Amino acid sequence: MDSDRSSADLTMVQAMTTYGSSQRLAVRGLEEMLGVLPHVMGFHPEESLVAILLEHNDVVLTARVDLTCVADPGEAEQHITRMTSRFPGARVCLIAYTEDPALGWEVLAECEMTAGLATVCTLLVTGGWWFDHPCGPGEPYDPRASIAAAEATLRGMPARPSRADLAALVRGPSDPAGQRASFTTQLKWLDDVLDPAQERSFLVRLLQEATARPTDLSDEDVARLALLVRSPDPRDQASMMLCRKTAPALLAVWSTVVSRTPPEFALQPLALMGMAAWVAGEGALSVCCLERAETLAPRAGLVAILSDTNSLMLAPDYWDEVLRPDFLTVARLVKAMPRRAYRRMIQRRR
Fold it and tell me: What is the pTM of this model?
C-alpha cells in the first residue's frame, strides 16, 4: 500500500448512502477508516462487501451488500459499475468482511478490475485482522480502538453488533395482540369524533407534541398517529413536515410508533420511518424499513418513493432540494405513472 493512500485525510460522513450529513468525522489512515465504518453504517458488517466512494476526500457513498450477492461471476462488476456510473470520477475504497478469505479476495479482485485506476485500496477483514494484500502481513482489527470510532460514539452514532440488530428496530411489537385493543378503541374514536377535514391539522398537532417526547408516547398517541397516516391527506402532511432539520426528531417518533404498531397498521408508519431515516442520513436503517414495508405492500406510494431513493442512490439533500418542494405532485405521479417513466423523471431531476 502506497504511504500516501494510507495517510489520506478522509472525511467520513454519517450516511450509509450519501454525503451531506451534519455529522462529519475527520479520519486519517486506513485503521481509523475501518474503525469508524461500523458507526457510519450503524452496525458491524459480517460477510459483506463495503464500497466507499470519495469525491475531493469527502465520502459521497457508503454501500454494503451481502458477499454472497456478488460472489457469482459478473455480479461484483455490475455492482461496482452501478455505483461508479452514478458518481463518475469518484475514487473507490473496497472492503470485504468475511471468514472466507479466498472468496473475499476473489470478489475484491473483480471489483478492483472494474473500478480500475479509481481504486484507492482493497482491504480484507477476517478473524480479527485486516489485510491490504492477499500475501501481505495483517494488522490487528479492533474498531473500538479507533479515535474516530470513539468520537462517533460520543456523537450518538451507535455501531450495533450486526445488521440483524438494526433490522430488529423495525420489526414491530413482539405481542401485537396486546396493542390491538388500543388501536380498535382509537379507530372508533377517530371515526366518531374527528371529521375527515380535521385529520390533517390534528395530525400536525399530534406530531409536534410527539417530537418533544418521542420515546414517551402513550398507547393512545401511537394508535392515533398510525391510524391517521393511513389517509392520503394526513400522510402527505406528515411527509411535508420532514426536512433535514426535523428528520432526527421525526425518526424517533416513527421508530416508537413502528415498535408498537400491529402489522396490519404498520405500512405507512414504516414508510415514514424509512423516509425520516433516509433524510437523517441513516441509510442502513432506511433500507431495513424498506425491506419490511415491501413485504406488506411493495407498490404503495411512499414505499415506491423510498425504494427509488435507495436504488437511485439519492442524497438526503435531494429531499429538501428537489422532492419536498414538489412532493404532492411526485406523490400523485407515483400513483398515476408507470414505474419506469416515474424513475426516468426522478433521474432527470437529479
Answer: 0.84
